[in-house]
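Take a protein:
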Amino acid sequence: MATMGIVTKQHLLTYMYLLVYITLSSGVILYNKWVLSTLYFNFPFPITLTMIHMAFSGGLAFLLVRVFKVVSPIKMTFNIYATCVVPISAFFSASLWFGNTAYLFISVAFIQMLKALMPVATFLVAVTCGTEKLRCDVFWNMVLVSVGVVISSYGEIQFNVLGTVYQVTGIVAEALRLVLTQVLLQKKGLTLNPITSLYYIAPCSFVFLFIPWYILEKPEMEDPHMQFNFWIFFSNAVCAFALNLSTFLVIGRTGAVTIRVAGVLKDWLLITLSTVLFPESKITGLNIIGYAIALIGVVMYNYLKVRDVRTSQLQSSQDGSTKELQTEKKTVVDMDNREETLWNDSVSDTNFDEEAPLMASSRTSHLGIGRKPA
């Protein structure tokens, strides 16, 4: 009876984490739309908003790492920073810049539909860079997703070319960041959890964003009629940082399958909420049909990726079992190493949310690789 009570309590805690993640993820996206939209809060400066997120998250990460010592920094050399952190930060800042700019031109619902292209972009970039092989099953899934997005775009009433270009460009930049992270950081044996990711990458991203901000947005922000509410931007940045941490908690308590299902539920919830909160957003039957087709492709892709991870885990377990036959001391070391590998494999193939400062895309991200949960 006591065991059942413990299991139920653990399940309830997991569901609570998932609920917090879905709520924060949807909330941050809708909050950003409300702040940037000229019909509502009317702060049409996406680079500025992104810089506020980076400054707040980087500063808070510094306090957590250096002052409160919640997590330990990694051994960062100038060479690693210049060859890994700088290029990753460049593509990360670009993905946020273009992604947030899209809110000025197209609806949240249509943006979520376009984000279904994230696995397609990541797969193509990975194949081009040689980090993934061109597989027939995955390729046809990507074709299905692309066809669905095209149908959905065709059915969009308020289709805007510029907004679509901004969003697709942001997706491509994010795909490049994900693959670069895998190639540059993982090959060097470095792992970053959400807090250390922000600690190293947020300040560098802020610098990259400063250049376009100074050219494009600073002159317009000198308008004396521009409104700036401290509490609005403070709460917006807090929500973005909280989303980052909630993602880490969720992946520590659930597997790849659960987080992927949660991501799909969040997308549908977000599309529904956006049409209620922003009446100017209209969804057509063709939108829904196209997105449903794209979602089928995404779900099939997720299944293939989860299957690959489980196969890798099974192989790792078999290898570990063979090594356990040697000595008791070596057994302990092998089990610890295998546990670390399984955690990193599970996290590296998990869907993260693009609105979290360093948890990109509701489709795929590899930068959230971190420590094992306690």
In short: Residues 30 and 273 are 9 Å apart (CA to CA).
